[in-house]
Amino acid sequence: MRKKLRRLFRRLSASHLGIKHDQRLIDRYLRDVTTERKLQLGCGRNWLEGWLNSDYFPRTSDILQLDVTIALPFEDDTFDYIFFRARD
């Protein structure tokens, strides 16, 4: 039951934060990074320092809500590295 409530809360908080919040995260990351730009897709609990971390159900407000089954909201060549770790 607790797990279902946590999932529901994550979904509601992600939808409540919305597109404006996500765009601010993207803008802040791209503005502040001075070295290589790095995007992590589906970070889950594996948050990486110096990366723009994203997940379909972000656990915290500093993780970008991103659905990788649709076109990503970035121009070509925005990132130097993109990381995705497949789960078993």
Please tell me about this protein's structure:
The chain contains one helix and four strands, in the order H-E-E-E-E. With 88 residues, the chain is α/β, with parallel strands linked by helices. It has one domain (2-84). The chain starts with a helix and ends with a strand. The model has no long low-confidence stretch (mean pLDDT 85).
In short:
By secondary structure, the protein is an alpha/beta fold. It has one helix at residues 2-32, and strands at residues 38-41, 52-55, 64-65, 81-84.
Topology:
Layout lengths: L1 H31 L5 E4 L10 E4 L8 E2 L15 E4 L4
Parallel strand pairs: 1-2, 1-4, 2-3
Low-confidence stretches: none
How many strands, what sense, and barrel or not for the largest sheet?
A: 4 strands, parallel
**Overall geometric form:** globular
The domain count comes to 1
Mean pLDDT, nearest integer? Answer: 85
Q: Helix fraction?
A: 25-40%
Q: What is the terminal-to-terminal distance?
A: 24 Å
H-E string? HEEEE
Gyration radius, rounded: 13 Å
Number of helices: 1
* Order of strands, widest sheet: 3-2-1-4
Total strands: the figure is 4
Structural class: alpha/beta
Tell me what portion of residues adopts beta-strand conformation. 15-25%
